[in-house]
Amino acid sequence: QVQVVESGGASVQAGGSLRLSCAASGYTHCMAWFRAPPGKEREGVAAIKGRSDTTYKDSAKGRFTISRDDAKDSLYLEMNNLKPHDTAMYYCAASFGLGFACPTGLQDDLYNIWGRGTQVTVSA
Known about the structure:
The chain is mainly β.
């Protein structure tokens, strides 16, 4: 079974940028980033199927970019123009077991592999 580990979280000021990384122990065709803001439920931020089939939460469009490096079994989330409401624990997720038939999207029940998260804090 694949395992994933996130890194790259930090405290930044509004308007700043961060790049989150997710190291996987193997290849999975569908992966995603989720986040859990303080006191709120986890929500999907961005998803990718294969190399270029991407989906974004509306508030992330134009600011966040999901990408992957399959040679490194790594997933990334480039976040620009960060805002205080982006403050959250960010989680990497993967869909394991369905191969290329994995469904893509921002619903958390599409994914069965989860990391422990990396904290992003954006101050005004």
